[in-house]
Specification:
The structure is a single chain. The chain is of the alpha/beta class. The chain has a single domain, classed as Rossmann fold (3-Layer(aba) Sandwich). 35% of the residues lie in helices and 19% in strands. The chain contains eight helices and seven strands; from the N terminus they run H-H-E-H-E-H-H-E-H-E-H-E-H-E-E. The chain has a seven-stranded mixed β-sheet, with helices on both faces. Helix 2 packs parallel to helix 3 and helix 7 packs across helix 8. The chain starts with a helix and ends with a strand. 44% of the residues are buried. The mean pLDDT is 96. The structure holds S-adenosylmethionine. The site of S-adenosylmethionine (SAM) has 20 residues, from helix 3 and strand 2.
Protein backbone atom coordinates (compact mmCIF):
# COMPACT_ATOMS: atom_id res chain seq x y z
CA UNK A 1 0.00 0.00 0.00
CA UNK A 2 3.00 2.27 -0.19
CA UNK A 3 4.57 4.05 -3.14
CA UNK A 4 3.42 6.76 -5.50
CA UNK A 5 2.14 4.24 -8.03
CA UNK A 6 -0.42 2.94 -5.50
CA UNK A 7 -1.67 6.40 -4.63
CA UNK A 8 -1.80 7.57 -8.24
CA UNK A 9 -3.74 4.52 -9.44
CA UNK A 10 -7.16 5.40 -10.86
CA UNK A 11 -10.12 5.24 -8.47
CA UNK A 12 -13.79 4.85 -9.33
CA UNK A 13 -15.18 2.97 -6.33
CA UNK A 14 -14.47 2.91 -2.60
CA UNK A 15 -12.91 -0.53 -2.93
CA UNK A 16 -10.16 0.99 -5.12
CA UNK A 17 -9.04 3.32 -2.30
CA UNK A 18 -6.14 2.24 -0.03
CA UNK A 19 -7.23 1.72 3.57
CA UNK A 20 -8.27 -0.77 6.23
CA UNK A 21 -12.05 -0.45 6.17
CA UNK A 22 -13.94 -3.70 6.88
CA UNK A 23 -17.20 -2.91 8.65
CA UNK A 24 -19.65 -1.91 5.91
CA UNK A 25 -22.45 -3.87 7.60
CA UNK A 26 -22.29 -1.29 10.41
CA UNK A 27 -22.77 1.54 7.93
CA UNK A 28 -25.73 -0.29 6.39
CA UNK A 29 -27.23 -0.71 9.86
CA UNK A 30 -26.88 3.02 10.55
CA UNK A 31 -28.49 4.06 7.28
CA UNK A 32 -31.36 1.63 7.84
CA UNK A 33 -31.81 2.75 11.45
CA UNK A 34 -31.80 6.56 11.27
CA UNK A 35 -34.37 8.79 9.55
CA UNK A 36 -34.10 11.33 6.75
CA UNK A 37 -32.44 14.51 7.94
CA UNK A 38 -29.81 12.63 9.93
CA UNK A 39 -26.24 13.94 10.11
CA UNK A 40 -23.36 11.47 10.13
CA UNK A 41 -19.75 12.45 10.90
CA UNK A 42 -16.68 10.27 10.50
CA UNK A 43 -13.60 11.56 12.33
CA UNK A 44 -10.42 10.26 10.68
CA UNK A 45 -11.03 9.40 7.05
CA UNK A 46 -7.49 8.90 5.61
CA UNK A 47 -7.98 8.61 1.84
CA UNK A 48 -11.76 8.26 1.98
CA UNK A 49 -12.33 4.51 1.78
CA UNK A 50 -14.84 4.23 4.63
CA UNK A 51 -16.25 7.69 3.84
CA UNK A 52 -16.99 6.81 0.21
CA UNK A 53 -18.47 3.46 1.26
CA UNK A 54 -20.82 5.28 3.64
CA UNK A 55 -21.73 7.77 0.92
CA UNK A 56 -22.55 4.87 -1.38
CA UNK A 57 -24.74 3.16 1.23
CA UNK A 58 -26.60 6.44 1.73
CA UNK A 59 -26.96 7.04 -2.02
CA UNK A 60 -28.19 3.51 -2.67
CA UNK A 61 -30.78 3.92 0.08
CA UNK A 62 -32.24 7.04 -1.54
CA UNK A 63 -32.25 8.60 1.91
CA UNK A 64 -31.57 12.25 2.73
CA UNK A 65 -28.62 11.89 5.12
CA UNK A 66 -25.67 14.29 5.47
CA UNK A 67 -22.21 12.68 5.39
CA UNK A 68 -19.23 14.68 6.67
CA UNK A 69 -15.62 13.59 7.08
CA UNK A 70 -13.09 15.24 9.40
CA UNK A 71 -9.33 14.82 9.07
CA UNK A 72 -6.19 16.86 9.56
CA UNK A 73 -4.96 15.24 6.32
CA UNK A 74 -1.54 15.10 8.00
CA UNK A 75 -1.70 11.53 9.28
CA UNK A 76 -1.54 10.13 12.78
CA UNK A 77 2.25 9.75 12.93
CA UNK A 78 3.88 6.65 14.45
CA UNK A 79 1.42 4.75 16.67
CA UNK A 80 0.25 1.34 17.81
CA UNK A 81 2.10 -1.55 19.41
CA UNK A 82 4.52 -1.56 16.46
CA UNK A 83 4.86 2.24 16.35
CA UNK A 84 4.15 2.39 12.60
CA UNK A 85 3.51 5.61 10.67
CA UNK A 86 0.87 4.05 8.42
CA UNK A 87 -0.22 7.32 6.80
CA UNK A 88 3.28 8.71 6.31
CA UNK A 89 3.69 7.63 2.68
CA UNK A 90 0.39 9.25 1.66
CA UNK A 91 1.27 12.47 3.49
CA UNK A 92 4.69 12.47 1.84
CA UNK A 93 3.09 11.84 -1.56
CA UNK A 94 1.16 15.09 -1.18
CA UNK A 95 4.14 17.06 0.13
CA UNK A 96 2.75 17.22 3.66
CA UNK A 97 -0.98 16.68 3.13
CA UNK A 98 -3.34 13.89 2.04
CA UNK A 99 -6.06 16.42 1.22
CA UNK A 100 -5.51 16.24 -2.53
CA UNK A 101 -5.76 12.47 -2.66
CA UNK A 102 -8.76 12.40 -0.32
CA UNK A 103 -10.69 14.98 -2.32
CA UNK A 104 -9.74 13.36 -5.61
CA UNK A 105 -11.06 10.03 -4.34
CA UNK A 106 -14.36 11.50 -3.16
CA UNK A 107 -14.83 13.19 -6.55
CA UNK A 108 -13.79 10.07 -8.48
CA UNK A 109 -16.29 7.93 -6.57
CA UNK A 110 -19.08 10.33 -7.55
CA UNK A 111 -19.65 12.01 -4.18
CA UNK A 112 -18.26 15.51 -4.82
CA UNK A 113 -21.65 17.08 -4.12
CA UNK A 114 -22.95 14.73 -1.44
CA UNK A 115 -19.96 14.37 0.90
CA UNK A 116 -18.46 17.25 2.86
CA UNK A 117 -14.84 17.24 4.05
CA UNK A 118 -13.62 19.33 6.95
CA UNK A 119 -9.82 19.59 7.09
CA UNK A 120 -9.36 20.09 10.80
CA UNK A 121 -8.14 18.63 14.01
CA UNK A 122 -10.83 16.49 15.62
CA UNK A 123 -11.28 18.61 18.75
CA UNK A 124 -11.45 21.92 16.87
CA UNK A 125 -13.96 20.40 14.46
CA UNK A 126 -16.17 19.17 17.29
CA UNK A 127 -16.27 22.68 18.73
CA UNK A 128 -17.97 23.90 15.53
CA UNK A 129 -21.11 21.82 16.14
CA UNK A 130 -23.88 22.65 18.63
CA UNK A 131 -24.56 20.06 21.30
CA UNK A 132 -27.06 17.35 20.30
CA UNK A 133 -26.82 18.35 16.63
CA UNK A 134 -25.47 15.11 15.16
CA UNK A 135 -27.03 11.69 14.68
CA UNK A 136 -23.98 9.48 14.49
CA UNK A 137 -20.30 10.21 15.10
CA UNK A 138 -17.75 7.56 14.24
CA UNK A 139 -14.22 7.97 15.65
CA UNK A 140 -11.19 6.69 13.76
CA UNK A 141 -8.46 9.31 14.29
CA UNK A 142 -5.40 8.79 16.53
CA UNK A 143 -5.60 5.55 18.50
CA UNK A 144 -3.61 6.24 21.68
CA UNK A 145 -5.49 6.33 25.00
CA UNK A 146 -5.37 10.09 25.57
CA UNK A 147 -6.46 10.92 22.00
CA UNK A 148 -9.41 8.53 22.10
CA UNK A 149 -10.49 9.88 25.50
CA UNK A 150 -10.27 13.45 24.14
CA UNK A 151 -12.22 12.55 21.00
CA UNK A 152 -14.97 10.84 23.01
CA UNK A 153 -15.26 13.79 25.40
CA UNK A 154 -15.36 16.30 22.54
CA UNK A 155 -17.86 14.50 20.32
CA UNK A 156 -20.18 12.76 22.81
CA UNK A 157 -22.11 15.97 23.64
CA UNK A 158 -22.62 16.63 19.93
CA UNK A 159 -24.69 13.46 19.47
CA UNK A 160 -28.43 13.79 20.04
CA UNK A 161 -30.33 11.47 22.36
CA UNK A 162 -30.86 8.16 20.62
CA UNK A 163 -27.89 8.73 18.34
CA UNK A 164 -24.74 6.67 18.15
CA UNK A 165 -21.12 7.28 19.13
CA UNK A 166 -18.84 4.60 17.76
CA UNK A 167 -15.27 3.94 16.80
CA UNK A 168 -12.86 1.72 14.94
CA UNK A 169 -10.08 -0.66 15.96
CA UNK A 170 -11.64 -2.06 19.10
CA UNK A 171 -8.85 -4.61 19.34
CA UNK A 172 -7.06 -5.12 22.64
CA UNK A 173 -3.95 -6.63 21.03
CA UNK A 174 -3.34 -4.18 18.18
CA UNK A 175 -4.91 -1.08 19.78
CA UNK A 176 -4.99 -1.44 23.59
CA UNK A 177 -5.34 2.34 23.99
CA UNK A 178 -8.63 2.32 22.13
CA UNK A 179 -10.07 -0.48 24.25
CA UNK A 180 -8.90 1.10 27.52
CA UNK A 181 -10.23 4.55 26.58
CA UNK A 182 -13.63 3.17 25.60
CA UNK A 183 -13.77 1.14 28.82
CA UNK A 184 -13.00 4.23 30.92
CA UNK A 185 -14.93 6.93 29.04
CA UNK A 186 -17.97 5.05 27.72
CA UNK A 187 -18.43 1.94 29.88
CA UNK A 188 -21.84 1.31 28.30
CA UNK A 189 -20.25 0.82 24.87
CA UNK A 190 -20.24 -2.66 23.37
CA UNK A 191 -18.35 -4.45 20.64
CA UNK A 192 -20.03 -3.87 17.28
CA UNK A 193 -19.64 -5.13 13.71
CA UNK A 194 -16.02 -6.05 12.88
CA UNK A 195 -13.63 -4.63 15.51
CA UNK A 196 -15.86 -1.62 16.20
CA UNK A 197 -17.33 -0.25 19.43
CA UNK A 198 -20.63 1.59 19.76
CA UNK A 199 -22.85 3.20 22.35
CA UNK A 200 -26.37 4.57 21.94
CA UNK A 201 -26.68 7.91 23.70
C1 LIG B 1 -6.94 4.99 10.64
S1 LIG B 1 -6.97 6.43 9.61
C2 LIG B 1 -8.67 6.54 9.11
C3 LIG B 1 -9.08 5.42 8.17
C4 LIG B 1 -10.46 5.57 7.57
N1 LIG B 1 -11.49 5.74 8.58
C5 LIG B 1 -10.78 4.36 6.73
O1 LIG B 1 -11.27 3.36 7.30
O2 LIG B 1 -10.55 4.38 5.51
C6 LIG B 1 -6.78 7.72 10.81
C7 LIG B 1 -6.88 9.13 10.24
O3 LIG B 1 -7.03 10.01 11.35
C8 LIG B 1 -6.42 11.24 11.03
N2 LIG B 1 -6.13 11.95 12.28
C9 LIG B 1 -5.20 11.67 13.20
N3 LIG B 1 -5.27 12.52 14.23
C10 LIG B 1 -6.29 13.38 13.94
C11 LIG B 1 -6.86 14.48 14.62
N4 LIG B 1 -6.41 14.87 15.81
N5 LIG B 1 -7.90 15.11 14.05
C12 LIG B 1 -8.38 14.71 12.85
N6 LIG B 1 -7.88 13.66 12.15
C13 LIG B 1 -6.84 13.00 12.70
C14 LIG B 1 -5.19 10.87 10.23
O4 LIG B 1 -4.77 11.93 9.42
C15 LIG B 1 -5.69 9.64 9.45
O5 LIG B 1 -6.10 10.01 8.16
Amino acid sequence: MTGSATFDAPVSHWQDIPGWFQWRDGQSEAVAHFPDGSRFVEVGVYLGKSLCSLAEVVADSGRDITVLGVDTCRGSGPEGVRDIDAHGPAVEHGAGTMAGLLHRNVIACGFADSVQILISDSLRAAALFPDASLTWVHLDARHDYDSVIADIEAWRPKVAAGGWLSGDDYDEYAWPGVVAAVRDAVPDAARWSTNQWRVTL
